[in-house]
Amino acid sequence: MHSPNHDLNNNRLPAIYGHFLVDLMRSRGLSEQDVLANTGLTLAQLAEHDRQISGAQHSLILANALRLSQDPGIAYEIGLASQLTKHGFIGFGLMSCANVGEALTLSQRYLSARVPLFHVDIRQEDQQVVVELQATKPLGDLYQAVYDMVLVELCCIFGRLIHGGKTPSSWLSEIWVPYAEPNHYRRYQDRLPRFRFNQSSPQIRFPVTLLDIPIASANPVTAQIAIAQCEQEMAQLVRGETSLSEQVSELLQRHRGQYPDLNTLAQVLHMSERTLKRHLQAEGQSYQRLLDATRYQHACDLLRNATLSVDAVAQSLGYQDPANFTRAFRKWSGLSPRDWRRQATSDAKDGLN
Length: 353
Fold this sequence. Notes:
The chain has 353 residues and is of the alpha+beta class. It has helices at residues 15-26, 32-35, 43-46, 55-69, 74-81, 88-96, 100-114, 143-162, 185-188, 220-239, 244-253, 262-268, 273-282, 287-303, 310-316, 322-333, 337-352, and strands spanning 12-14, 52-54, 118-125, 128-135, 174-176, 194-196, 203-207. It has 3 domains: 1-70; 72-242, no CATH class; 244-352, Arc Repressor Mutant, subunit A (Orthogonal Bundle), CATH 1.10.10. It contains 17 helices and 7 strands.
């Protein structure tokens, strides 16, 4: 059974995302009361302008949808049904950019203002643009559904920018995911970008030539208005009491296998090492605890990829001696990496039945 991760309580999302999901489930014959069960939310609240909900509440809506529909492929449906306007000023900004390259740059800068659940890294490899996502919080057993939903949605957004608002009939992008092909994928594959399973990390890949494709709805005046509003949302997010421990966690998340030490983090955050330690302690945290939590999350993400050996996972996390990784992982989870992988594989199969 899918369940929300309450570590997501500190992440805030626009309520419209929950409203969109409830509407989609109602079109499948499910009641809004059932989809919103145990969230403490009503559909009227989700429709309120500028209202936000916690990441845990949104996860619970998704978990309810998966449980009630008995269809794990609903994550694909959510991504395919998404509209640019759902994303507020970022959506209008993307539609107003001159070309796909500008839109990609804008989305990378402002995505965290709307969905602070992911860190996005964009790079070029040979003639491919690689958009890699890393969750900033553990996703638990919603891991696969969330990535399926978000990756398909991002492909749809940029596909519609290229094809004038329509879902492309032939996809120019590929989605890479670090887990095996699920049974339900075959039912949806004709409507989706090509998926490549058992890859190193969640990614979208597309030809670099797409960056220069003009966007038909480009409007430089609208783009500037949208960017100004996005900057305001970013400023509100920073002022919105993002804790120091959350900032440290995000910095650690961005450097898998090459985690910055305490002194480096202190320099990035413009404070002394002693001050950083004192502030973390005041929040009930420590550098080592945050590092362990980040390593554990990254380890779980990598262990879900059945093609990676435990030794390879250890090396990716910066452990020279795999035995040290095994001891650390047992301390974090109570299981050896192999036992954890076996249990996670079994749970994933049960979730498909």
